[in-house]
Amino acid sequence: MKKTILILMFAIMYNISFGQNKVDAEKLVNEGIAYHDKGDYDGAIFRYDKALILDKDNFLALTEKAFSLLMSKKNEESIKCCEKAIETHPEEEGLKMVYVTYGNALDGLNKTDRSIEVYDEGLKQFPDFYLLHFNKGITLWSVKKYNDALLCFQMSAKLNPKHASSHNAIARVSKINDTRIPALLAYCRFFSLDSESDRAKQNLESVRSIMKANVEKNGNKSINISINSNMLGDVSANGKQKENNFSVTDMILSMETAMDFDEKNNNKTEVEQFIRKFNTVCSSLKESKKDNHGFFWDYYVPYFIEMKDKKLVEAFSYVAFASSADPDVSKWLESNKEEVERFFEWSNSFKFATN
Q1: Nearest-CA neighbor of 186 among 202, 209, 170, 164?
Q2: What is the pLDDT of residues 113-133, one digit of tens each?
Q3: Fewest Cβ atoms closer than 10 Å to its Cβ: which of 101, 119, 133, 344?
Q4: What is the pTM of this model?
Q5: Where are the alpha helices (H) located in 143-197, listed in sequence order?
């Protein structure tokens, strides 16, 4: 009887001790996260290690340690943490971020093929996690597999339409592929989510280039329009439009850009010129929508058609130019706060296609 009581007391004390260890470990993990957020990765890792002494397979400690190691560029150690987390917690929902860290660490070691394999392993378990698609796309982009990367970024944008980096990536890959209108649409969607960062400044320069539409003025009267080679061959052998064919809108943008040099537009500001041309682009998209298909037509075009229909192009345009340091832009945004708010309320509630 005494032996039975002793065994029961030992079991109770063990459970109390184990429970206390978990509580103390969680406190250390939270402290580690705070250190990580301050950029003190070594301080964070020290606390995660203490937490793992108390609770050797603590999932959060393993995942956060792996991330801090990644940020410290200790990729080999990060990989080991990720592998242990996957091994000891195979059903944990939080593994979706572990696979992201794992893939990033492999990418940091230039193990591109294995990195992609890891992202695919993660996607088998978490097919709807946008960051796995996005980071796989980044790895594919790094080895210049642009079309494969673009498909990943498109899926990421579908799964999370408010992920600015997905639109940024779609725009930049489209620019590399020299597909002008798709790049413009993705850049403009990006501006509705991020219009004042360093990326926004870089992207605004790209949009300025796109809006020139290969139109140049030579002398007093001569205007040259260079046709975008990607507009050619947009009809398949059976006479049907190819996927993501924007040749009509591309040509219309060029024609409208030639009007920049018309006397009636000479005194317009850069934003006013953009508003005029972008309204024309949106009108062209609306007229051509029923005859076209593809991701850009199905995902982005309805957004910009509705923007024009709701007379929000002006507000959007000033938001898009917010990073330009133009005092007239700042003045307009300050004087038209209600219109800007109306634009963001509409934009934030817009339902993008998910299939």
Answers
A1: 170
A2: 999 999 999 999 999 999 999
A3: 344
A4: 0.89
A5: 146-159, 164-176, 180-191
